[in-house]
Amino acid sequence: MTRRFSGKLVLVAGGTGGLGRAVTLAFLEEGAKVVVTYRRQTEMDALNSAAGIHTASLAGRIVDVTDEAAVSRLVQEAIAESGHLDVLVNTIGAYAGGATLWEANPAEFDRMLKLNLLSGYALMRAVVPAMLKQGSGTIVNVASRAAVDHSGAAAGYVASKAAAVAMLDSLAADLKGTGVRANSVLPSIIDTAANRQAMPEADFAKWPKPEDIARIILFLASDDARLIHGAAVPVYGAT
After folding, report:
1. Domain 9-235 architecture
2. In this predicted model, what pLDDT tens digit does every residue of 214-235 receive, in sequence order?
3. What residue ranges in the chain does DSSP mark as E strands?
């Protein structure tokens, strides 16, 4: 097992969720200290159990990542404790669909923007100044295939994911030459328990596994990917 992230501090937003959990465990396996945000204590308890011998390198914080002030406090506290912040991975996201744009509940559109776009906005605004100060850092934002493949009956979801990719692209342009890199990954439907429950008749074998996507995220966050900046990497599996 390589330990590419020994001595590194990684913030995984949504680090107890279906994908976030796999990302967190992968970073721990490679020597990182990981801070995760979460909303449900049962999920944090399960993550601590899964972390096993790496539990001492794992910390969790209950944070609403759409709240800029709360995210700023989290980042400041993490940096005050360790002196640096090396990687941000944002796995926060939600899906709402099944209705046309004119029939959908406007509240769902707002929720998609908050969870899929504003979460990344708040996190990046909080971490980028610290990364610029230290002259290094990597950001990986999890968007979606829907950002480029615009299906019907999901206007809020599609718009929020497309905007998240555009925002990351603009940030990457701002960061050129600073030593800080930023990239997106675009999964299709991920093979999580929640997605299996929502689509029980689907062919799960075609869905990318959280652990496979986590390996791609770790690569993008590592020095091995130092030439990759401003990319939107498709991780569709066999779908």
Report:
1. 3-Layer(aba) Sandwich (3.40)
2. 999 999 999 999 999 999 999 9
3. 9-13, 33-38, 58-62, 87-90, 137-142, 180-187, 232-235
